[in-house]
Amino acid sequence: MRISPTATAHPTLLGxxxxxxxxxxxxxxxxxxxxxxxxxxxxxxxKPGLWWRILxxxxxxxxxxxxxxxxxxxxxxxxxxSHPVKRHRPIPSGRVRLGVAYAEWALLGVAxxxxxxxxxxxxxxxxxxxxxxxxxxxxxxxxxxELPYVDVVSESINNPIRLLLxxxxxxxxEFPPVSLLIAYWMIxxxxxxxxxxxxxxxxxxxxxxxAYRSSFRYYDEQKLLVSMFFYVTCFALFLGIFIIRYHLxxxxxxxxxxxxVSYYLHITFRRDSAAQNPERLYRETGLMAYLALCxxxxxxxxxxxxxxxxxxxxxxxxxxxxxxxx
Length: 326
Description:
Blueprint: H1 13-18, H2 32-41, H3 50-80, H4 98-117, H5 121-138, H6 150-156, H7 158-170, H8 178-203, H9 206-212, H10 221-246, H11 254-268, H12 285-301, E1 304-305, H13 307-313, E2 324-325
Helix pairs in contact: 2-7, 3-4, 3-5, 3-7, 4-5, 5-7, 6-8, 7-8, 8-10, 11-12
């Protein structure tokens, strides 16, 4: 049974502001590990003006993210009318003029790229890649969000792009480890597959789910769970490669990371799970406290050297310096 669309309202200024999803800017916290990793890789050669670059970079990323959100809102509106909650969004409910929305999408994207150009060219091209992936994900004929599995990996690639942006804001002359980028991509894919799993369970009607998102015509709970296991396994593998190759001390956070993934999975199984709306995960105070502990541990260990560990694991130490040795 399809859900009928909501009654048409009148366009409002608030409706046009809402489609930029300012509340989703919270997701840009995924830039932070890129900043920490770049500083930890060579903290002695970080150029002055770091906080200024981070501020300009953050504004640029938020503008580009909002541009992608606007085009997503525009092109998702017809299918959002089949979703029990999203049919109340500004465009399906008639609170936005499409012509103005398209102008908003273009202006936000251009403004974000202009801000990115103030930093450096590697940051600019990473920002352009983030904008481009928004088109791949949303715009026909590709519209990757409609393709099973491709929808997850094409949206979650925004994770390593954000890591690149954080890294280039600090160190534009170097490229981050590929193993770290892939690990970051795969944990993002796990989060996104968890979102799909939670959405599918919440709609609880295959025909309605398929009308809302065509990839749901292929998915079921088992397929989504298996894909989640695949993504988190790949994440663990590439995280291990990064740790052994670049900074063995980070192996101490592995139990913390495993606990965080387990905690997130626990939340995913809840009824009306916050995993359906990652921008609202900040309300999960326990999860946020755990995340803060993981980030703080990662940041701290990047600046620590424990030479004995390299003997225990028979690993050659990285050439990157550390602040503290034990």
